[in-house]
Amino acid sequence: MTKYAFLNVPAYGHVNPTLAVAHELVARGEQVSYYLTDTFRASIEATGAIFKPYQMAEMRPPEGAVRPQGINISHLLGMLLRTSASILPQVLDRLREEQPDCIIYDFMCPAGYLAAQILHIPAINLRPSYVPSKEMMSRGPFARAQAPGAEMTALQEQLDELCASYGIPSIRPMDIWTHHEELNICFIPRAFQPGGDSLDERFVFVGPSIFMRQDAPAFELKRAEGQPTLYISLGTVMNNRPDFFRLCFEAFAHQPWHVVMAHGTRLDMAALGPVPENFQVAPYLPQLEVLQQTSVFITHGGMNSTMESLFYGVPLIVVPQQPEQALTGQRVSELGLGTALKSDELSTIVLQQAVARVSSDPAIRANVQAMQQTVRNCGGYRQAVDAITNFAATHPRNSTTLA
């Protein structure tokens, strides 16, 4: 039996793809521990993994880090450095006691990368979104990313101090975001990654890792027979957009669609006015179940939502809320899987025309069906676990290094 320790950040887009992987490892007789905040306890325990809590506030990009025109890399790296400095002292002693054979960590949780270095444990990197390849970083908002020199210098000093305190060689600030391990599990198909063909065998593109959520609320679709379903969601983070949801009410209240809308938990529904008769709205919905009954999905373009939509063969209308999602909208348009809209150019007519086009275009439908097969043929969580167990078998931990 091999021992695996997962380290992740408290963000659904990073946790959800890992749940089926943890479950499959347990099903194959492996021991799995999972370090995360208590909000995710039920989801982790449902996989059969041993839940090990740490304390951390909800993870959100700092003010000014993510803007429509680009990314302030130094602000994001600073956030990752602060979370690592918070998580590491909470998990290191428990990892020493546990003595896992392998650490599996999300790329937004560099505490996992640093813990593996400190304890000399083989590590695997998880990427629920794009690999920061040269081609990806040359595109759109990433090409306009900013990293002010003074801020990067300050980050380097903080990293030097953190690494010295744990007796490991210092790393560059960009390494806490772009570092690659000998094995990197990517939860998208290679065809969706910009420059995917240029990435070597260290990167295993397994596509979406579908696992029915244990915390999903019960939901019953209430539509007329034969009526198509339009699903609308801006995800779980940047969804406090009463202007957007009010516009959706106006655009589709008298359209021949049954509209299912997830509006998040921070929205004041009174600000939207009466809910149209052909709408079903809720703060949170069982997205996997809804997508199986959906004809068109208006989404923020989060990678989980995008991959789940393609897994179920649903064309997309992407309304990005941040730069990475803008790249996803670009990929959706390039690959003919739907279209992308700019938030500041939305109107009732723009939304109506986008839905009409995406729902009726035979080329989009054919492209989505082809990508659905590509996504499903990637192997998902089973392919991920095959790669993980093969890695662990060929990279044994030195049992003397954790003392």
- CATH homologous superfamily classification of the largest domain: Glycogen Phosphorylase B
CATH domain class of the largest domain: Alpha Beta
Low-pLDDT residue intervals, each spanning 5 or more residues? none
In CATH terms, what is the architecture of the largest domain? 3-Layer(aba) Sandwich
Per DSSP, what share of the residues sits in E-state strands of 2 or more residues? 5-15%
Q: How helical, in percent, are the residues?
A: 40-55%
Number of strands: 15
Mean pLDDT: 89
Structural domain count: 2
Shape: globular
**Main sheet summary:** 7 strands, parallel
Domain Erythromycin biosynthesis protein CIII-like C-terminal: 270-373
Family: Belongs to the UDP-glycosyltransferase family.
InterPro entries: EryCIII-like_C (IPR010610), Glycosyltransferase_28 (IPR050426), UDP_glucos_trans (IPR002213), UDPGT_MGT-like (IPR006326)
Protein name: UDP-glucosyltransferase YjiC
Description:
There is one protein chain. The longest helix is centred in the first third of the chain and has 26 residues, at 73-98. The protein is α/β, with parallel strands linked by helices and 403 residues long. The chain folds into 2 domains: 3-207 and 378-394, Glycogen Phosphorylase B (Rossmann fold, 3-Layer(aba) Sandwich), CATH 3.40.50; 229-377, Rossmann fold, CATH 3.40.50. The chain is globular and about 65 Å long. A 7-stranded parallel sheet has the order 3-2-1-6-7-8-9, sandwiched between helices. α1 crosses α15 (380-394), α3 (73-98) crosses α4 and α9 crosses α13. The model has no long low-confidence stretch (mean pLDDT 89). The two termini are 21 Å apart. It has 15 helices and 15 strands. β14, α12 (323-334) and β15 form a beta-alpha-beta unit. 41% of the residues lie in helices and 15% in strands.
